[in-house]
Specification:
The structure holds 2 protein chains of 2 kinds. Helices cover 55% and strands 0% of the residues of chain A. Chain A is mainly α. The relative contact order of chain A is 0.03. Chain A has a domain of 55 residues. By secondary structure, chain B is an alpha+beta fold. Chain B has 4 domains: 47 residues; 165 residues, Penicillin-binding protein 2a (Domain 2) (Alpha-Beta Complex), CATH 3.90.1310; 361 residues, 3-Layer(aba) Sandwich (Beta-lactamase), CATH 3.40.710.10; 57 residues, Trypsin Inhibitor V, Chain A (2-Layer Sandwich). Helix content of chain B is 36%, strand content 23%. In chain B, the strands form 9 sheets. In chain B, strands 2, 3, 4, 5, 10, 20 and 21 form a 7-stranded mixed sheet that branches. A 6-stranded mixed sheet of chain B has the order 12-11-25-24-23-26. A 3-stranded antiparallel sheet of chain B has the order 1-8-9. In chain B, a hairpin with a 5-residue loop joins β8 and β9. The chains are: A mainly alpha, B alpha+beta. Chains A and B meet through α2, α4 and α5 of A and α1, β3, β9, α9 and α18 of B.
Chain lengths: 165, 684
């Protein structure tokens, strides 16, 4: 697989046919019979060497201008981030509020349905037919006319007029 | 090392070639970018223009969910706020037969939980599967426990749909007033039918934006729901219950066939109770085998000859149009009156000359006829019409009968005599209640009212019509009190109320059998009355149909029912007492029980001409032939739905085939003639 550099230099290798740069490639193609020979790598004649540099005596000089630029950049990014967040926040908030709203709507409908069911149950429980049966089971008698005394509530809403005040 | 000259020339060439190469590369790159941009543009055009609708629809299907906003049918309350009818959501089960892995096992599972016949369900599922039908109702409106058990199975081929179900929490209470609804919650009887447009809600719809888990994010209303209007009736469920209970007791005690009771406020026409026997439970759908008669509102729809209760009209007309007063002597001819072609006998024993108030108290037929003769046919007809007989009351319930009073030019020689004692005229209980209310309220004819409020607005009361002078009404009240308190009053032993005054009139009329064209020995026993006398809180009309013998007279049969209902109503309405408690018990008996038999209005047994009931039946048959019960559209409905709808309307049907109703005869909308059946052909 050719490296990027080799690819870029593909045309140049044709132009610099006499150039030493093209030598390894040519050498590699000249003797294809030796299948155990390592293929020449592009730029294999470029050697790198690590040079030891002693910078222990270098002191970093304080650069107020660079620091200011740095902080300005940080600030600018922060402002951009805040603006971006500010711009996106309503959408995000709206989405979450939508979830919440729909959940509450469903809950509301469920409660309405439940209330209807309970009202039907209550009506069935307080049905005169049922109360009559219960009263008969407890051997209760129907009050005669005038025997029922209706209590008027106190000012505080209490109903027990027959109890001591 | 390369020579400098050669290097220079080569460098010049290389630069030029390099520029060429660079330009070529750039051209290729630009071409590539252009092609790429073109492809993207083409794709965009494809997405946004060519296939826009398809993709938008696909996106909507994926992201949007249409949610129905329920609009339940309006509830119905009694005047105290007690719910009488309410709709609550309930679930129905369906399956996709094409997705059911094993129909045999599936039908067994469903049948066990839903209490269905496994074999029948399996057949239905097989048939649906064979017809490649992707939907099949298994059971509609199931119980919550059944739904919970089915859900716990987590079977993806079982679907649930939320539907609304009508509940009548008090069962049979006020069943005839409320009526009932069909499977689709459409009213098919009673107020549910006559006020169906108001009660029926219209469901709304919203489009919900959902996420990948189908959770709602945002909803947009596409159709606003319109909930059904809540109705508050004038019915008081406590009085209604007492009326139904006492009516059922009375019917059972006197072996009557049917009965009806109307309790009404005489001043504003508010109906406090309207009971019929037999009754039905509106929670239970009518079965094809069920007798539709149970669902007839007898008090509204079934007219009868009223008998002696009609003497109230005769005497009112006499007070208004003649110089007769309560003490005016009336010659009762010792119990025998010879008319052209007819001899009328008093029912039990004859009287000589008695005051007019005693004619009412003793319910003398000959006395009433004599008074009727004084009134004259013209006035009698006019007052019968003034009291509202022969016309609908407009109470607002379906199938109300107008009753019948013949036009004056069709009266026969003895018609005046017959009508004076309550024959040759047919009325309904509600008409009698309205007539009685006119006497109780001081002479005003009011329109009976069943709806107190629609939504939050009170239903307006119609202005009453004065039909009697106030003094006439007061005099009639006093005379009617005599029926209850006088020792020879026909209601004396049966109607007295502890702590309250009461007035009324008994009535017993022989029932005419239209089929055999004969009067039978069965009676319509009635009592219409009010309490207290000075300021009546209510009027009550009790009618029991099919009583027999001396014990089957209006006073003995309907009187005690009136007494029990009135006692309960006075307590419920908290009416102040107008008598001391010491007068609660009736005085010792002074008249023989057989004197009640005088109450029986003697029918004209020998007349060859059509009886008024016969004529009414013929009129109804003619009307049925012309307007008749309309045949509904059964097409597209299941056999069960057709059978239920037909039974609820009292229509005889003949069902052929299986599956869905494809054809019917007579066609929808046409009138069904008497004796005719609706033939419905079903097919897959």
């Amino acid at each position: 697989m050719a490296t990027l550099a080799a690819n870029f230099r593909k045309d140049e290798s044709v132009i610099y046919s006499e150039d030493a740069f093209a030598a390894p490639a040519r050498r590699a193609t000249a003797r294809p019979a030796d299948r155990f020979r390592l293929r020449a790598l592009p730029n294999e004649d470029v050697y790198f060497s690590a040079k030891r540099i002693d910078n222990s005596r270098i002191l970093k000089q304080r650069d107020p201008r660079a620091a200011r630029e740095c902080w300005s950049a940080i600030g600018a990014f922060a402002v951009l981030a805040v603006l971006l967040a500010g711009a996106l926040a309503p959408t995000v908030w709206g989405t979450f509020a939508g979830y919440q709203l729909q959940a509450l709507k469903q809950e509301h409908q469920r409660l309405i349905d439940e209330r209807s069911t309970l009202e039907v149950q209550e009506a069935a429980l307080t049905s005169p037919v049922r109360l009559e049966k219960l009263a008969k089971a407890q051997k209760l008698l129907e009050p005669r006319p005038g025997q029922v005394i209706h209590l008027d509530p106190h000012a505080d809403g209490s109903m027990a007029m027959n109890l001591t005040k | 090392m390369l020579p400098v000259q050669g290097l220079t020339s080569r460098t010049v060439l290389t630069d030029r070639q390099e520029r060429l190469a660079y330009t070529r590369r750039l051209t290729w790159l630009a071409g590539g970018v252009l092609v790429w941009a073109g492809l993207i543009f083409a794709k965009i055009v494809s997405l946004q223009v060519i296939h826009h609708k398809d993709y938008a629809r696909a996106a909507r299907q994926q992201q949007e969910l249409k949610v129905e906003i329920p609009a339940p049918r309006g509830p119905i309350f009694d005047r105290t706020g007690q719910p009488l009818a309410m709709s609550i959501p309930t679930e129905s089960v369906s399956v996709n037969p094409l997705r059911v892995p094993d129909i045999g096992i599936a039908s067994q599972i469903l049948a066990r939980i839903l209490n269905l016949d496994a074999g029948e369900l399996r057949d239905r599922m097989r048939r649906a599967n064979e017809h490649h039908s992707g939907f099949l109702w298994v059971k509609r409106k199931i119980a919550a426990t059944e739904a919970e058990e089915l859900r716990s199975l987590h079977l993806d081929w079982i679907d649930f749909q939320t539907e609304s179900q009508r509940h009548y929490p008090n069962g049979e209470l006020a069943a005839h007033v409320l009526g009932s609804v069909d499977h689709d919650e459409k009213g098919n009887a009673g107020l549910e039918m006559s006020l169906d447009p108001e009660l029926r809600g219209r469901a709304g719809q919203e489009v919900m934006l959902t996420d990948v888990k189908r959770r709602g994010i945002e909803a947009q209303l596409s159709a606003r729901p319109h909930a059904g209007l809540p109705l508050t009736l004038t019915i008081d469920s406590r009085i209604q219950f007492a009326a139904e209970r006492e009516l059922a007791k009375g019917v059972a005690l006197h072996h009557a066939r049917t009965g009806s009771v109307v309790v009404m406020n005489p001043y504003n026409g508010e109906i406090l109770a309207l009971a019929n026997y037999p009754t039905f439970d509106p929670n239970v759908a009518p079965k094809p085998s069920e007798d539709p008669f149970h669902r007839f509102d007898l008090a509204i729809s079934v007219p009868f000859e009223p008998g002696s209760v009609f003497k109230v009209v005769t005497l009112s007309a006499a007070l208004e149009t003649t110089d007769l007063r309560p003490d005016s002597p009336i010659n009762c001819n010792n119990g025998v009156l010879r008319l052209p072609g007819r001899v009328i006998h008093e029912a039990h024993r004859g009287f000589g000359v008695i005051p007019m108030h005693e004619v009412l108290e003793r319910s003398s037929n000959i006395g009433a006829i004599q008074i009727g003769f004084r009134v004259g046919a013209q006035n009698m007809y006019a007052y019968a019409r003034r009291f509202g007989f022969g016309g609908s009351t407009g109470v607002g319930l379906p199938a109300e009968s107008s009753g019948l009073i013949r036009r004056l030019n069709r009266w026969r020689t003895t018609s005046l005599a017959s009508i004076s004692m309550g024959h040759e005229v047919s009325t309904t209980s509600i008409q009698l209640a309205r007539a009685c209310a006119a006497i109780a309220n001081g002479g005003l004819l009011i329109k009976p009212k069943l709806i107190l409020k629609q939504g939050e607005s009170l239903t307006p009361a119609e202005a009453p019509t004065r039909i009697l002078r106030p003094q006439t009404a007061i005099t009639m009240r006093q005379m009617m009190e005599g029926v209850v308190i006088s020792p020879h009053g026909t209601a004396h032993r049966h109607v007295r109320l502890a702590g309250y005054t009461a007035g009324g009139k008994t009535g017993t009329a022989q029932i005419f059998d239209v089929k055999t064209h004969h009067y039978t020995h069965l009676y319509n026993a009635s009592f219409m009355g009010f309490a207290p006398v000075t300021n009546p809180a209510f009027i009550i009309v009790v009618t029991l149909n099919g009583t027999t013998g001396n014990g089957g007279m209006g006073g003995a049969v309907a009187g005690p029912v009136f007494q029990a209902i009135a006692t309960e109503a006075l307590r419920v309405l908290d009416v102040p007492r107008d008598l001391p408690d010491t007068e609660a018990e009736p005085e010792p008996e002074e008249v023989a029980p057989a004197d009640d038999a005088n109450d029986l209005a003697i029918a004209d047994l020998g007349s060859p001409e059509p009886n008024v009931m016969e004529e009414l039946a013929m009129q109804n048959a003619t009307a049925a032939a012309e307007t008749g019960p309309k045949v509904p559209n059964f097409r597209g409905k299941t056999m069960r739905a057709v059978a239920e709808e037909a039974a609820s309307m009292g229509l005889p049907v003949s069902l052929d085939g299986s599956g869905i109703a494809r054809a019917q005869a007579p066609p929808a909308g046409s009138a069904l003639h008497e004796g005719e059946r609706v033939r419905v052909q079903f097919a897959r």
